[in-house]
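It would be a great kindness if you could assist me with a short task in structural biology. The matter concerns a single protein, recorded as an amino acid sequence and a row of backbone structure tokens. Kindly check, if you would, that the fold set down in the tokens agrees with what the sequence suggests. Thank you for your consideration; the sequence and its tokens are set out here:
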Amino acid sequence: MTTHRFSQVDVFAPAPLTGNPVAVVHDAAGLDQSQMAAFARWTNLSETTFLLPPTDPRADYRLRIFTPAEELPFAGHPTLGSAHAWLGAGGVPRTPGLVVQECGVGLVEVRKHGETLAFRAPGLLRSGDVDEETLARATAALGVARGRVLRSNWVDNGPGWLGLQLAGAEDVLGLRPDFAAMDGLEIGVIGAHDERDRGLIGADYEVRAFCPGLAVPEDPVTGSLNAGFALWLTAEGHLPPAYVVRQGTVMGRDGRVAITTDEARQVWVGGSCHTLVEGTLTI
């Protein structure tokens, strides 16, 4: 048996218990893949991560990301939560203010600005139009009228997202999905709040993420999906270069995801992180 430092971090959380938790196992080199997968099943969180020494000399650490069902090449809230945990455990990045994470999609940059972290959105593994048969299956599973879908696209940067932009935030909040009918689809939806609501809630758009293959079939707050939406919709001019998303509302959460675009047209996905649990894991 081996003992490892353990953290549980609330990500994209303006206050504790409002975001999406990720379990982080530090110094995980002594664990094999079967142990990692078993622990991820046991935590029953959407993702559990394992911090390892990097194999790329440009990286500060290597990260493996597991859902209860599979390993992912990339995921957003685990990236921010793991960087937060690594820094909190005394990690010192090679470049001040910039953490470089090695994971399945390659190197991912995470920058620290005050109390918030933001990752640079990785390129999409799959993009482009959604065929009509798949789109019909997705809209039927969500119970949304086809006329309320403004546009659709594959926005897969690891988890396999199919993205839909709906006519408004009320459409997003009103969805009552049939998870069985999704039949393997991972579907994300985004819709704009009206001007009055934007001022009241401090967010421009509402997002929901449906992933029936996970322990929790609706993900509370989702960095990878928001990164995919930003790459797709800002490039086409349908979203501004900077905006704030609210996610997790129907689940009793109050997540906030901040999207910014820098001078080099790189998209950054950021939010606040809070370590809520610290201790040791012995397996």
About this structure: The chain is about 25% helix and 40% strand. The first strand starts at residue 3 and ends at 11. The radius of gyration is 18 Å.
